[in-house]
Fold each of these.
Amino acid sequence: MGGLRQEGARGVLIAVVSTIVVAAAIAFVVTRSPNWPQVKEAFFNGEEFRSSFPDIAVKFVRNVEFFMVAEVFILTFALLLAVMRSLPGPVFFPIRALSIVYTDSFRGIPTILVVYLLGFGVPSLSLTGVPRSATFWAVVALILSYSAYVAEVYRAGIESVHPSQAAAARSLGLSRWKTLRFVVIPQAVRRVVPPLLNDFVGLQKDTALVGLVVSVPEAFKEAQIIQSADFNFTPLLAAALLFLLVTIPMTRLVDWLVARQRRRRQVATAL
Amino acid sequence: MIGPRADGEALRLEGIHKSFGRLEVLKGIDMYVADHEVICVIGASGSGKSTMLRCINLLEPVDAGRIMVRGEEITARGVDVNRIRRHIGIVFQAFNLFPHMTVLRNITLAPTEALGLSRTEAQASALELLERFDLADKKGEYPDRLSGGQQQRVAIVRALAMRPDIMLLDEVTSALDPELVAEVLNVIRELAAGRMTMVIATHEMGFARDIATRVCFLDEGRILEEGPPDSIFSEPREDRTRRFLQSIIEAGRM
């Protein structure tokens, strides 16, 4: 982007022309392929798209809800896990060990398995006092699984704060806890915002997994239902498009934040 | 901590030993500091100056020996380190300001969170200190917008805001460009004029000579020689002290 701006109007013109040429070439090759009519009918059916898109879009609201609810819990729980792991000294060994076992386990198990296990497993136990909603447990599964990843992101951030910062805070008489709260964690979180947002993108996509176990459809499930009713894959493409509408802006935001951070560091070192 | 003692003792180190793994850095340090004294600790890099100061602030646990602050043994078991540290200010070579906080917040953090002062009280006394050290216009800036000299002065103010009984300064000018050294030394001179008790590890020999009530020469983890600055700098008894001072003169730093 920056490169284009520097090259000026001529650069932009060249970029536009070359993009049009490449796109036309791809379109030409694809539409000339022998099976294109069938592929077009099954995946890019305009009528099917128009009729299914509104239904799927309505259900996609559920995915955004799952995402937002899960994210709040993930950010909190993961921070707790990361702090547990950063506690020093032999006294806290059991707490550190607990956190390590947790993150290792949940990072090692495919998310889809956790969603299945909890989403189908827990409601089938019919335990008293425990929610029986498969949706509830599927979202819990996402929280448990993603917290392990996000805890590692936080941990990297905490470890990247130089020990001299904690030493300075402790030397002023701040307790270990207040040092973490006011000095270490705020700096750690600022540094890991881009990778955190990356995990947000992943989570938004994985809300589709909830559709595997629930009766209340979300976007993917709805698309699947329409697909099997109409014998056409276009609804799945419509669902994919909805996910992209959310995840692409998030990805661009990550890029922008990373670039801004790099600029700031350069300014700081230049001073 | 209890107030000043009748005998004026501010700080006493008795047989302090400290090792990092197999490396023994402090090999039995004895030191006495009276109220209002300014002790300059000189010695080559690696002689243990920083480690000694960090031990006094309890940032490093000692392996053996005792440290007494106004008669209270702070190295005893079960001592509340946070309470002790509030009485002992330390300033580091690398400033260690909190980069995510403004100058004012850097200074008020510990008074509000460790001493329990209200924000208004803490800010009022912080502004007073900033005023005194000519930094009032920087209160809203973030540390990375300040010069090294300004950052170090802020770090000194941050330590002073806790109203410590003793200040420890760990080579506070060593990371500064030469033209910024004077402004920081002037701040320390002013503290000395205000009768602050200080232990200063420094390579600035001219400054040590001016300001110190006593100079200690630290060599390989021991205090080899100590005395009034005139006698240490003009007629050192020990051969090693003489050689150290000679090397400083040859480097053009005295």
Amino acid sequence: MFLLALAMVVTLTSLWEWRMRSLALLPGDLSPSAAAWVVQRRRVDAEDAKVVIIGDSRILYDTDLGRFQALTGLRPIQLALQGTNCLPFLENLAADDHFKGLVIVGITDTSYFRERIGLFEAALKFARFESPSDRIGYWLDYGLSQYLGFLEPEYRLSVLVKRLDPDLRPGVKGPYDDVWKISTMGEDRQTAIWSRIETDPRLRDHARAVWNGFKGDKVSDAVIASTLGRTRTAVLAIRAHGGDVIFVRPPSAPELRVNEDQRLSRARGWDALLAAAQVRGVHADDVPETRGLIFPEFSHLSRACAPVFTDAYVRRLTGLTPRLQLRKDAPPPLGPRDCVPAGAASAEVTTQR
Amino acid sequence: MVFNSLTFVVFFCCVLLLHSLPFSWNVKKVNLLVASYIFYSAWNPPFVLLLWLSTVVDWWAAQSIVRSTNPLRRRAWMLVSVIANLGVLAYFKYGKFLLANFTALLSTAGVHYVPPDFDIVLPVGISFYTFATMSYTLDVYLRRALPSRNFLDFALFVTFFPHLVAGPIMRPTELVPQFEEPRRADRQRLCFGLALVTLGLFMKVVLADGFLAQPTEIVYDSDKAPGMLDAWTATLAFSGQIFCDFAGYSTTAIGVAMCLGFALSDNFRFPYAAVGFSDFWRRWHITLSSYLRDYLYIPLGGNRHGEVRTYVSLMATMLIGGLWHGASWAFVVWGGLHGLYLSAERVLRKLFSGYRPGPAVFFGLGLLTYALVNVTWVFFRAKTFAKAWLVLNGMFGLNAAPVPQLAVVHLLSVAVIVGGIVAVHWRMRDTTVEAVLARVPTSILTISWAFMAFAIIIEQGAGSAFIYFQF
């Protein structure tokens, strides 16, 4: 009985794995998790990190760590977290006296200027204490993920069942309106947009619909004042123990940007932030190379365009801080032509004007 | 570590392998003891010290009780054990609660007092193992049991990993004798044990975490006022979630112990088919209710000192039982409601002592019991009293402007799963899992087992802790 049941389980699981791989869920794609983040956070202290990136999904998906390394010789530690306000993480680094490196803070204004932390609040708790069981569990999961594609939280049985309901009950936004899988994550949290978001119109349209244009209430003056004050304090603390901070504002498609600006204009947010915290930064609007890039679901760059944006902002950063130097053998600059196929802008993808 | 984690799967395979190797029985017991310490320290290694403290104090106290002929000295050693166990429990579990209430009390008296920070981590399962070890010294003191002859057996009783953090709360008389002679599961018991592990994990990973947790969270963790449909669905979902979570843990624990050749007590006997509340407590968390009966209700007087004393004992037992679940007034209310139900039932049984209900009335009384149990779950689940009232108002249609919150898929999944649980409980209320399994054809059992295991694998699970770990 046991052997027969085992044979059935192995057969069914193999069929499931085959089906999941046909949906582009591939081995080696790690799930975004607090445990994976903590592994990188530990490296900050253990390796005397030179460059650390914090922020939300934009700087996470839109940064190509390989390109960064090719340009500067430094591979940053990627600590950005999707759906999460990075200000508490900046404060976490500020409280770490050992940290003497450069923090690149990638912000989406509406994510940075808000009171709640968001999706990955648990990451900070994990950073303070991670049980041996959690740590072993992460490495076991990591090992299995190298061979199995179906270990994707967004394609769990219950999640798939719940998505069968296309909001049948009037007035209720159900699990169908949750954010589905939109990214893949590899070694050292190198993250990029999931290939099917670029190729499957249904998934892309769903992601666009879920963003709902990033519409929302205007950011209040109190939240702005509090954010500016906390940022200034954190930056001073990091500088006091030998580190430095620089800001980056990645691009977004016009369909989102218009609403983002309505909620928090550049003058009230970005400009005020740089002035209050006495920091320098790179705003996508000031980088001509980002014009014409592709945003499959309006919020993040395509896989091919992420290295182009990385190339552009890293070159700018080398001019703003002595902590980043352009290598003599750095590859030549990239531009939109390196990632936008001819005629793509007018077809199924959205580009920044 | 939690049962529903890859870490535990690897750990359990290692333990099973070690236990099957041809070592002496003493070496196997040492292996189990070390494994149990590893199991517990996987959460937070320093808390193993608490286990050692509990083990050493109770072993020493029990030995001293046996050696003492002076009644006062015997009582003193018993008190040492009780104070040590309850002291640890009070500090870690109730310290913050007591301090908050003390501060509130001073505040009402006009005294402004700012207490120092009391930010401590609650050791997992502390309520379970302190109760288990305390029962040892109490049993020896009350001469209900002889002390263990072997320290290793006693230490293993305290620490044995299947029951360590969330029960079943075993008595020394049930488990210590099992450690005295070599035990190993034969092929049939190993198979049955693994099937129970699969069933328990299916209940936890697929039903509780996968399908029932979210509808509960949507209503209970939101500020919106629910209507009758949403409030009842969320509460029914929680009734299913907590059953699948806790009974799932107990079933897994029993299965794990069975694979190693040991027997743990049943903790659940189809509680949602209970008719009346005394019946409910004979079916829900059986090892806790029998513990409270033997070590609290009966010592408080039980039903031997007149009606008034009986009701006082009943209420005190249930209030303390509520507080055992957590340091919060909401748990006290939950326990108090059960105390009131039990008292009311006792009154009604006296008034209608000759009444024997027909099948329809009997079933109706069962549904009424289940509905009233659901009312108590509101206080168990809601984070604040305000939220509890909001949900209760919703359940009785009293919210003026209810907001629909649950999607159709949630309504359907709760109806199917919780309806299924209640139906299974009624179908099996007078039998046992073993008896039913003996009648089911092997082919159906094999297919069911395989599908449950497959569902666990593709649900993956997030390794979330069991609800009762916090108690």
Amino acid sequence: MRLLRVENDKYVFRLGKGERELLAIALSLYPAIPAAHQVISKSQAIANKTNQHLLDEALAEQRRENKKRVAAFLADAKRFHETETSTRVTLTGAEIEWLLQVLNDVHVGSWILLGSPDESSSELIPTDKNVQFIDAMELARWFQSDLLRAFSEKP
Amino acid sequence: MPEVMPDLEREEKTDSKSEQEPGYLVICWNDPVNLMDYVTHVFQSVFAWQKQKAEFHMLQVHNQGKSVLIRESLEKAEHYVHQLQKYSLHATMERDE
């Protein structure tokens, strides 16, 4: 996924052969972080005071909205312009910000499903049981890096 | 009963006041999974920090295991933790003691 140009908050990317499908696979794995995984505080007193359930509800609502938005994003044929050798996709800054959140959920969630290992995904030994999560982490990380680079390359 | 009520009221007022004081720390904890560039980017987005400040805190998380990002009232600290967790960062709020 390579940034071609930025004009008026429109980021035009070139996706290589097969990359559109890989992006779709990565996004379809959302949400990956288990519900109620995140805590508001390590202190029980604060957790009680601030209502942990408010955080759980906010994150659950975000998951529902993002899931719908992912489906709409992938189904939006006009967004993707196919050529013989590649695909072009145009994203706004806000859409990149959203994609980064979704992809990081897949990245971190897959790591949690792997048992939160200390090693990076490239150092883990794939087995039949963990290979799907290692691949998901790598895939999400790959697209995250490209999107972050686009922000840093922005003129 | 009349002797007890004023004490209760005072206690409630004190508690409410303490919630409005910037006595809560928003802390980001290290994990081996989030990308360093991503963490920097999130700090910039959530706190509207310059890149240099965001990188300083990202490196503090990476090297020291955690970084205190901001000291705020209960409500604002809660808001920032929600924002950071929407980006899937490991962030919590703790009492500044």
